[in-house]
Amino acid sequence: MAAVVTERTPAPAPAPAAAPRRRRPVPAWRWLIMLIAAVYFLLPLLAALRFAGIKAFGTVFTAAGFGSSLWLSVRLAAVTWLVTMVLMIPTTVYIHLRLPGLRRLLEGITILPIVIPPVVLIIGVLQVMPLGLRATVWMLPLEYVILAMPFAYRAIDAGLRAIDIKTLTEAAGSLGAGWLTTLWRVILPNLRTAVLSATILIVALVLGEFTMASLDLQQTFPVWIVLFDQFDAQMSVAASIFALLVTWLLLMLITVVATRQSRRTGGGEVTLFTVAPRETIGN
Predict the structure, then answer these.
(1) Count of C-beta atoms within a 10 Å radius of residue 245
(2) Is the pTM here over 0.70, yes or no?
(3) With CB atoms 3.0 to 4.6 Å apart as the test, which of 56, 166, 177, 279 could cross-link to 238 if both were Cys?
């Protein structure tokens, strides 16, 4: 009998282990820029702390009008956020889906509140608003919506560019979902990061706005700080530092919570005008 000779195929050699990546050292010029920026921002704060003193922080919370003005600014921020989201999200989504050729025009319109001074805006608004609305504090959120429009639009627009909104909408429509259902259960979960980014900008804008509130004769927290400066400069500086600290803590809280939630659901990082494209999610 003839012997059958079999040849064994040699086993493939194991792939070499990937070398660990080495972190590139940070260039010295970056450290220099960070140091200059830290000195630029921290030096005025240290000077303000030294001028105000520690005792001023203990008495600022009991000053007349402190709590009411701060609570008014918080309420205005909440109403401004709600009205801005109700107006900007459906409008931006509709432009992306139905009228993409008008995106350039909408970008130009939304940039106008940055170009036009707030004094000009408030004078024009006061001329056309009814007297009954001008006498209430709720005219301020309508004006703040105009100021917040450029920031909210760009944050939402960045979120829509990071997802395939047309495919998501067509898929939801093929399953029988209406427009409101698609917007609420399909588009909004994927815009969560963009909405939170817009929230950061809106809250920071409202808590620091002075011009429109003062011309409307409404005592928001920034207006209260300026008025109180005429009686006690040290306490006014302490209140300014407190407002800066509260705003910073609030924005940091929103950013941390939003980033953690986005990582769990596969969304992008919370930034101001950009959203990293990742896997879309559903509700």
Answers:
(1) 11
(2) yes
(3) 56
Cα separation, 163 vs 223, in Å, equals 41
Within 8 A by CB and 6+ apart from 236, the residues are 225, 226, 228, 229
Q: Tokens for 61, please give them.
A: 């919370």
Please choose, from the candidates 53, 240, 83, the residue with its C-alpha nearest in 3D space to the C-alpha of residue 149.
83
Size (the chain), residues: 283
CA–CA distance, 92 with 70 (Å, rounded to integer): 32
Buried b / exposed e over 115-132, threshold 16 CB at 10 Å, is eeebeebbeebeeeeeee
Tens-place pLDDT, residues 76-113: 999 999 999 999 999 999 998 888 888 888 888 888 88
Residues contacting residue 282 through CB under 8 Å, at least 6 positions apart: 185, 186, 189
> In 3D, which of 246, 222, 248, 242 has the Cα closest to residue 48?
242
Q: Domains of the chain (ranges plus CATH)?
A: 55-265 (1.10.3720.10)
Between CA 252 and CA 26 the distance in angstroms is 25
**CA 187 to mean position of chain CA atoms:** 18
